Amino acid sequence: QGGGTTNGLRILRFAKMSRLVRIIGLLRVFRLARITEDLLDRYISEGVQMIFRIGTIFLAIVWLNHIIGCSWYALGRGFLSSDTGTTWVSSKFDVQDQVVDMSSLSPVYLYVTSLHWAMAQITLGAIELVASNTSERIFNICLLFAGLIFSSTFVSSLSATMISLEMRATDLNRRMRLLRQFLYQERVDASLSLRVRQQVENRLRRQPKISVTDVDV
């Protein structure tokens, strides 16, 4: 009975700590995102903003997988008691006809393996690691459900950003093509034509100022 009480306290402490880490992480992410968005709107063009957003999405994925990987590593190190007497860290695997004990490997390898496992769960991929006890299996199931939502959300967000960037580039190329045709049609000197095209392209790439009529409030 004493062991069951201890396990229950550990599970409760782990849940509280995980919730606190998630809350602090989300607050920092939201604050950083708000500050970054203000800076982008003030000083950076729309095209660069889209590229920056794509990079931000990938950085957020890396950060999320780092948190999940650390949690998986903690479970493997016995942060919670195992009802089967084993964890994924104590498992064994074959390498060139030799049995290797996972627990004998370096912490760096175990962390990279945890990160790989986390990315596989979020992206609904595959990895040779399997859950070895109830706590690990519950954690795995929760991540599989989260992966279903995350994959669709990530793909749609990335697709929308890429399509918007492609549409902007297509519109710019269309305008520049019409300008080149017009300059050629009017027999404009080559050096003057080059300067005109450079000026027009710079102005088109520049983010336009927002007027009062654009603010719909």
Polypeptide structure, described:
With 217 residues, the protein is mainly alpha-helical. The chain has five helices and two strands. It has a two-stranded antiparallel ribbon. Helix 4 packs antiparallel against helix 5 (190-205). The chain crosses the membrane at residues 50-75, 108-131, 138-165. This is Ion transport domain-containing protein. Keywords: Membrane, Transmembrane, Transmembrane helix.
Task: Give start-end ranges of low-pLDDT stretches.
Answer: none
Give the beta-strand count.
Answer: 2
Average pLDDT, all residues: 75
- Main sheet properties: 2 strands, antiparallel
State the assembly state of the protein chains: single chain
CATH class of the domain at 44-168: Mainly Alpha
N→C terminal distance: 63 Å
Offer a concise description of the structure.
By secondary structure, the protein is mainly alpha-helical. The chain is 72% helix and 4% strand.
Key traits:
mainly alpha; 5 helices; Helix Hairpins; 2 strands; single chain; 217 residues
Could you outline the blueprint of secondary structure elements for this entry?
Elements lengths: L1 H42 L2 H31 L15 E4 L2 E4 L5 H16 L11 H52 L4 H16 L12
Antiparallel strand pairs: 1-2
